[in-house]
Amino acid sequence: MSTKEKIQEDVSVVEKEINQNEIVLYNDEVNTFDHVINTLIHACEHTPEQAEQCSIIVHYKGKCTVKTGEFTDLKPRCSMLLEAGLSAEII
After folding, report:
1. What CA–CA distances, in Å, run from 83 to 24, 43, 77?
2. Beta bridge partners of 67
3. Can you give the pLDDT at residue 19?
4. Adaptor protein ClpS core domain: which residues (predicted)?
5. Which pLDDT does position 8 carry in this prediction?
6. pLDDT band at 9 (very low <50, low <70, confident <90, very high)
7. Which residues 6+ apart lie within 8 Å of 17 measured at CB?
8. Could you tell me which of 23, 25, 4, 34 has the C-alpha nearest to residue 90?
9. What's the maximum distance between 2 C-alpha atoms anywhere in the chain?
10. pLDDT reading at 12 higher than 60
């Protein structure tokens, strides 16, 4: 018979709790795909592929989270989206 030895490691994990917010972009019937894509590239620093995927999701699903982060980082980005005529909010 063998004896099984159980080893329990104490792992201490220090996590910094950060309040994450999201910019949600909503669909509209006014803006073109190109305008939405270019605005996401500029305001949210998306790659062209990311921006295109978000625009398609917004078109078919009605909304899409386009950026996640701290409120202080998201506020100016959301303002750029709104100034460009897009419908967005921080939640």
Report:
1. 15, 10, 10
2. 23
3. 83
4. 19-83
5. 57
6. low
7. none
8. 23
9. 76
10. no
Q: Which two tokens stand for residue 46?
A: 């998306």
Q: What is the pLDDT of residues 13-58, one digit of tens each?
A: 555 667 899 999 999 999 999 999 999 999 999 999 999 999 999 9
In a domain, 61, yes or no: yes
Helix (H) or strand (E) holding 44: helix 33-44
44 domain residue, yes or no:
yes
Q: 68 in the Ramachandran plot: left (φ > 0), alpha (ψ -120 to 50) or beta?
A: beta
> Tokens standing for 33?
């795909």
For the chain, what's the residue count?
91
Owning domain of residue 49: 31-90
Residue bearing tokens 């019937």 = 29
